[in-house]
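Input chain follows. Return structure tokens only.
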Amino acid sequence: MSKPTIKNCEYCLLATGKEPCIIVLENEYVAAFLEPNSASSGSVIVTTKQHYFDIDELDEPTAAAVMNALQTVTRAIKTVFEPDGIGLLQNSGKFSDTLHFHIHVFPRYRNDWFRGLAGDFPGPVAADAAETAAELRAALTAQQR
């Protein structure tokens, strides 16, 4: 891994365990954690452990690890929440909500909040994060069998 973490980058701190979050999957290159204050229960953020700002900066092993994590997390979300589909959202440049590369992975349902993306968003979904994380981890473990 070529790039260092940035001392005050929130996602560097979360992905490397220096700030608390509920990690559901991690390896040498990436961490996937429950998205706090999400508009959809079961939403996960997949991010790099090393600091990258945008997708075109990722080295090949990190890019491969991100894709693998996205596939694995998607399968787990489908198993646990049985959604109508999956949404992936990655913003960059001036549209990024943080200066660290990450992708949001979230369950989608027919007529859900995402259809009105330009309009009003509902408030955060009340969910037991510990229970959600346990269910996702169990689905991730089942994939490894």
